[in-house]
Amino acid sequence: MTKVYIDGNSLTLQDIVDVARKNYTVGLTDEAVEKVKKARAFVDKLVDEGKVVYGITTGFGKFSDVMISKDEAKDLQRNLIISHACGVGKYFPIDVVRAIMLLRANALAKGFSGIRLETLQTLIEMINKEVYPAIPEKGSLGASGDLAPLAHMVLPLIGEGEAYYKGQLMSGKEAMEKSGINPVALTSKEGLALINGTQVLTAVGALTAFDAMNLLKLSDISVSLTMEALNGITDAYDPRTHALRPHQGQINTAKNVLNILEGSERTTRQGEIRVQDAYSLRCTPQIHGASKDAIKYVLDKVALEINAVTDNPLIFVDDEYAISGGNFHGQPMALAFDFLGIAIAEIANVSERRIERLVNPQLSGLPAFLTEHGGLHSGFMIAQYAAAALVSENKVLAHPASVDSIPSSANQEDHVSMGTIAARKAREIYYNASRVIAIELMASTQAIDFETADKKLGKGTKVAYDKVREVVETLHEDRVMYKDINKSAALIDNNSIVDAVEAVVGELY
Question: Which residues carry this modification: 2,3-didehydroalanine (Ser) (predicted)?
Answer without folding.
Answer: 144
